[in-house]
Amino acid sequence: MPTSRSDLADLTYFLAISRHRSFRLAGLELGVSASALSHALKGLEARLGVRLLHRTNRSVTLTAAGEELRDKVAEPFGAIDQAVEGLNRYRDAPTGRVRLNVAAEAAPLLLAPIMPVFIERYPDIEIDIAASDQMTDVIDDGFDAGIRYGGTVPEDMVAQRLSGELRWVVVASPAYLEKFGVPQHPSDLKHHHCLGVRLGNAHIYRWEFEGPEGEFSVPVPSKILVNGGRAMLAMALVGTGLMYGMEASFAPHLARGELRLVLEDWATMGPGYHVYYSSRRQVPTGLRLLIELIREMRPLGL
């Protein structure tokens, strides 16, 4: 059965759905409604005479036929994308779309400062940013690249450093310190209210410090657990408890006196941000230009 023009469009939809396991997320990537994707996939399945997806209210999974089709068409469709991307070198102004999955704090600290310059230089390039501290497989989820701390970059990826090392500190509001006192040693934290961080594996993050004997971590008492930096910062600002995080993210509040550093002598340095992407795929022009601009402007040093 010859492939029609509508089959090619629907196969593009199918590949996006297979990456995201979600009609809604695939629709966001493609700029198409979830209902339109569902209708298109039903039409494709009818024309092919096989079911490609198992759909329930909670999940979308591939059938055996769907997995076979995905494995056979993903590479040629990727080659088409690369061929079109390669035409950028013939254009006066580069075009395209770059999808990034970045650590939540990297968006305001690393990307926001360079974006005004980027969109002025490259007005025809679209940047799609998903900011989250939840680790994800950037390739399977359809991203061109990820930005994470150096120690968390998958080993099978090409990585480039985008910032200098990051300083990790403890802060609190003046009101909290006036009421509960200033800790002098990390061991004092057991007597304080600490805002805890729940990691993706459901474990509670142990605060890390560095002293004369080297680096060590401390379990802190946490009656309040937060998995988002903005929510935790709001609580720290009103005096709920001590907060652990990157000094750069606290800089405006420290400058205004809304927060104060504590345990400075025990602060530790950690790996900076790295961008990473698959070694098996051509680097999109937009991603290359974005990396070059970050390394040129150095919003977090380098």
Q: How would you describe what is shown here?
A:
The chain is α+β, with helices and mostly antiparallel strands. The chain has helices spanning 5-20, 23-30, 34-48, 64-86, 106-111, 115-121, 174-180, 229-237, 247-255, 285-297; strands spanning 53-55, 60-62, 96-102, 125-131, 145-149, 157-161, 166-172, 195-197, 207-211, 214-218, 224-226, 243-246, 260-262, 268-270, 273-278. The chain has a five-stranded mixed β-sheet with strand order 4-3-5-15-6, with helices on one face. Strands 7, 12, 13 and 14 form a four-stranded antiparallel β-sheet that branches. Strands 1-2 form a two-stranded antiparallel sheet. A hairpin with a 4-residue loop joins strand 1 (53-55) and strand 2 (60-62). The termini are far apart.
Q: Tell me about the biggest sheet?
A: 5 strands, mixed
Mean pLDDT comes to 88
Reading the helices and strands in chain order gives HHHEEHEHHEEEEHEEEEHEHEEEH
State the total count of DSSP E strands.
15
Structural class: alpha+beta
Terminal Cα separation, in Å? Answer: 55 Å
Quickly count the helices. Answer: 10
The percent range for helix content is: 25-40%
Strand content: 15-25%
Radius of gyration: 23 Å
The unreliable regions are none
Widest sheet: strand ordering? 4-3-5-15-6
3D shape: elongated
